[in-house]
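ok so dumb question maybe but i'm new to this and my supervisor (M.) told me to 'just get the structure for Unconventional myosin-Ih' and walked off. so i did the thing. is this what she meant?? sequence i used:
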Amino acid sequence: MLTEFNNHFILISGESGAGKTEASKKIQQYYAVSCPSTTLMNTVRDKMLMSNPVLEAFGNAKTLKNDNSSRFGKYMDIQFDSQGDAVGGHILNYLLEKSRVVHQNHGERNFHVFYQLVEGGSDDLLKQLGLERDVQHYYYLTQGECAIVSSINDKNDWKSVKNALQVIEFDENNTNHLFRVVASVLHLGNVHFDADSKGHALLKNNTELNWVSDLLGVDASNLKEGLTFRKIETKTEQVLSPFTIDHAIYVRDALAKAIYGQTFTWLVNRINESMENK
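this is what came out, is it supposed to look like this??
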């Protein structure tokens, strides 16, 4: 790069389990030890390396072929000055597999962060989020029937993620909000519907719904209405059409996927702000 004074690109491709994620980390580690060392470089290098545990927690999952499979695409810029010092970075993410939030095939898991939070979060944190220390309690975590995997240590990974968030300069307020959103998705998955005499969806137990509304800061009655009724607006009035149970489940899952997808995008944007060349 210094000789040609030009951008260079490294494209990493291959089938699942080939080692794309590990290869990209090795390249970053190579830059970290081979580039000139300055205070700025060390800061950028640390943030660049520490973005990995966070992105893997929120964007990677156990699949049949790979225990740490990236379920999103990543394009990463590392910005160097004319001396070869790394002065900034930027990540572009695309095609996050949001469907995994609400459904996993047999032998696969949801995204790592859910298991890390339940297994590794402190008792106080779990109490604040209304969570139990039992992954089997959550519908969104158990469909693959392999929530606990011997090769994955969720408690240790949780500590790595918490440490990485501090290096990337996430303050306590943002970190708490982030975990509240993650917890809200777990509660949303446990919202169950009953049918009335006409086959329309009813919410009899509001405990999980109240946790979702509290964690997201939204009105519980509006949330309940949104999950059980379709709102049809005409020029002069609004009509509420009740959902069947199948429709209500579809809407619940769509909301969970949307919340998680937006959160992942927000997370990448925050990492980019932290690594931006000032």
